[in-house]
Amino acid sequence: MRAVDIVATAIGNSFRSRLRTTLTVIAIFIGAFTLTLTNGLGAGVNNYIDSQIASIGAPDVMNVTKPVVATAETEGPQPYEESGSTEVSSGVGPPGSTVQAMTDDDLDTIRAIDGVRTAAPIVSVRPDYIEYGTEGKFQLTVSPLSAGIRVELAAGTMFDTASSNLQIILPTTFIETLGFTGNDDAVGKTVTIAVTNALGEQTTVDAVVVGVQEPTLFGATPSLNEPLTSTLYDAQNVGIPTGTSSQYGSATVTFAADATEAEVAALKADLVTAGYAGTTVTDQIGTFQSVIDGIILVLNAFAVIALLAAGFGIINTLLMSVQERTREIGLMKAMGMSGGRIFALFSTEAVFIGFLGSTIGAGVAMLVGGIISQVLADGLLADLAGLQILTFTPGAIVTVLLLVMGIAFIAAVLPASRAARQSPIDSLRYE
Amino acid sequence: MTTPVLSIRNLTKHYGSGSSRFDALKGVTLDIADGESIAIVGKSGSGKSTLMHILAMLDAPSSGELIVDGTDASKLKGSRLNALRNRTFGFVFQQFFLTPNTTVLDNVMLPLKIARIPSRERTKRAMAALEKLELAEKSSSKAVDLSGGQKQRVVIARALVNNPRIIFADEPTGNLDSATGAVVEDLLFELNRTQGITLVIVTHDEDLAARASRRIYLKDGLVIDEPAVGARHTREVGA
Ligand SMILES: Nc1ncnc2c1ncn2[C@@H]1O[C@H](COP(=O)(O)OP(=O)(O)O)[C@@H](O)[C@H]1O
Ligand SMILES: [Mg+2]
Question: Which residues form the ABC transporter domain (chain B) (predicted)?
């Protein structure tokens, strides 16, 4: 038999027992459907994270902390360090994790490390409220991460780095609450921010809204430009004894923008040797991404288990098919069809069943996923602009199809080789 | 005399082993000449089908030799064996072995499909075979919708579509009433006469056997001389 005849005959055969084929196809459908959706979920989330990483500027920035030296349980406590062993909440990493406070000496040490261009302390600003017009006062949190991050703007422009004006970028979620009529309305307006100093006195600072940003994965916190941050910090530190105010939770280190991954790794290693830990924004997101990848892997494993179960369905279907067609096989062999071609005939039938199940499964998954994704993007996940929670890439779909057809082929090996080995005469003998 | 197409020497065949061993053929020697029609006659269980299957190389003998066209059959394996089965032999069985839910044409084309003949060519040849058997107008009917006689004619069309040299027929009229059986018999002998196709017919029907140019009588796995005239009256028992 020619290859086309084998394929045509195999397809014809699979339609001969329609109910059985349908049931097997449904089993495969479920597996392929699930696998396509879980893959789509992984791709969707990771794409979003990638686009977030891309939207984050400053690939030449690293966050540096001074970790508490780990003490193994069998060891005693570490010796007290005269200068600045105060532990402060790190603000990054798991809640409750602490780092040692850094001093200006630490900054000098860091500056001396090869590859470090600048090292500046990250100061934490704790404003009391933000206010515009007469709508009232609202709580304001400034995330330390927002320094160095380029954001997607819904209106206005980025900070003017050359300017020493006090500038702020508000997230879209603040706009209506503060009393602006729209994103464009906010741009150019002046808002008032208040901080309380160490003496308990509240002072206010005025800042100009230069832009409105889409909320990101890192939440919806306003970004302040450098002059505004320092102004607020200075206002907040009025009345603090000098020794204490020069302690920082972490520092921002810049390095060459064109540094290769190896150079960045070397820099991190040097920092570790010096007793510090450096993480780039990409590192932090990478951790996040590997958690997502882990979850997707587990989900995929479930889908593959479903497919394996479907594989046994295929074995069963084909065994019955071989049984039913014993005489036909015998006849074909008597007419000179080789065992190899009989094998090809039955395995093609299985692969075709796998093809049917997987294309329908993947197709329906794409359809359903597209709808779910759209509904979520307009509803639950509307705050995360640009997130298509289920993203289907041609590569992933083709992989699912090939995987399912591969499983179908493996499932066919036992029944098909049984058919191929059948002696013509045992098959033709009639009772 | 020319070399026989099929020649067997001291052929034995047994099934099972030990206490369940059964000797179906106990040493059969036979030559079949090109173009002759030969009837293998015997009661049910005498070993006729076993002998025919070995002749048609569908089964291997336990001992003895089979020579096909001067070649030792035990040396024919794999693709040469498949090619021989496909091109040299045609089969007509007591049961039709038609694929019920496919068309008459598809059933007849099966040997050509296996022979890797292109689609257009095989349709042409299958239609020609069906025309010969006056079944052309049934070509697109499902095999299951045909009468017994029509089915057997489809089987004959399938047997001769690849221009075989030998047609093996195992009880070809066993499932048919005597009128349709006679038509099928006529067809087979006509093929033998007009196209020179060697005909090997297995039967327990004396009347059918009488039409063959030669008869071989089997009893309990051995070739015997023509039985006494009285044997004809035990025909019904044999069925
Ligand atoms: N596969 C087999 N296993 C065991 N015994 C068999 C097998 N095939 C045939 N036989 C036995 O061999 C004998 C001859 O069978 P067969 O050639 O079919 O006889 P016939 O065609 O003359 O009726 C019978 O007794 C049958 O029971
Ligand atoms: Mg028989």
Answer: 6-239
Average pLDDT over residues B107-132: 91
Q: Which residues sit opposite B44 in a β-bridge?
A: none
Interface of A with B in 411-430 (CB under 8 A): 423-425, 428, 430
Determine the atom of ligand 1 nearest the C-alpha atom of B46.
Answer: 22
Q: Give residue A242's pLDDT.
A: 64
Q: Give the nearest partner residue to A334 out of B83, B91, B99, using CB atoms.
A: B91
pLDDT at A368: 93
In chain A, what are the domain boundaries?
3-54+287-429, 61-279
pLDDT at B163: 86
pLDDT at residue A85 greater than cutoff 70: no
Query: Which of B76, B81, B113 is the best mutation test for A, with the most CBs of A within 10 A?
Result: B113
B34 Rama class: left (phi>0) / alpha (psi -120 to 50) / beta:
beta
Where do the domains of chain B lie?
Answer: 6-224
Please provide residue B205's backbone torsions phi and psi, each rounded to the nearest 5 degrees: -95, 110
Give the integer Cα–Cα distance in Å for B189 and B181. 12
Confidence of residue A92 (pLDDT cuts 50, 70, 90): very low
Q: Which ligand is nearest to the CA of B44?
A: 1
In chain B, residues with a C-beta closer than 8 Å to the C-beta of A18 are none
- A317 secondary structure, DSSP code: H
Give the Cα separation of A329 and A322 in Å (integer).
8
CATH number of B6-224: 3.10.129.10, 3.40.50.300, 3.80.10.10, 1.10.10.60? Answer: 3.40.50.300
Q: What is the pLDDT of residues A246-284, one digit of tens each?
A: 777 788 888 887 778 888 888 888 888 888 888 887 777
Q: Which residues partner with A155 through β-bridges?
A: A212
Best residue of A15, A321, A331, A335 to probe chain B, by most B CBs closer than 10 Å: A335
What region does A60 belong to: left with phi over 0, alpha with psi -120 to 50, or beta?
alpha
- How far apart are the C-alpha atoms of A196 and A203, rounded to whole Å? 6
User: CB under 6 Å to ligand 1: residues?
Assistant: B 15-16, 22, 24, 42, 44-50
Which tens digit of pLDDT belongs to each residue from A172-207?
888 888 889 888 999 999 999 999 888 888 999 999
Alpha helices in A214-280 (DSSP H): 226-236, 242-245, 261-273
* pLDDT computed for residue A286 by the predictor: 76
Contact by Cβ (8 Å): A180, A189? yes
In this complex, is the C-beta atom of A331 within 8 Å of any C-beta atom belonging to chain B?
A: yes
Residues 6+ apart with CB under 8 A from A34: A299, A302, A303, A306, A365
pLDDT of residue A87: 56
State the pairing for strand pair A190-196/A167-171.
unpaired
Mean pLDDT of A26-34: 90
Nearest CA in chain A to B57: A334
The H-or-E segment that residue A281 falls in is helix A281-324
Q: How far apart are CA B70 and CA B3, in angstroms?
A: 7
Nearest neighbour of B85 by CB, restricted to A16, A336, A428 = A336
Enumerate the residues of chain B whose CB falls inside 8 A of the CB of residue A9: 113
Q: How far is the CA of B171 from the centre of ligand 1 (A)?
A: 14
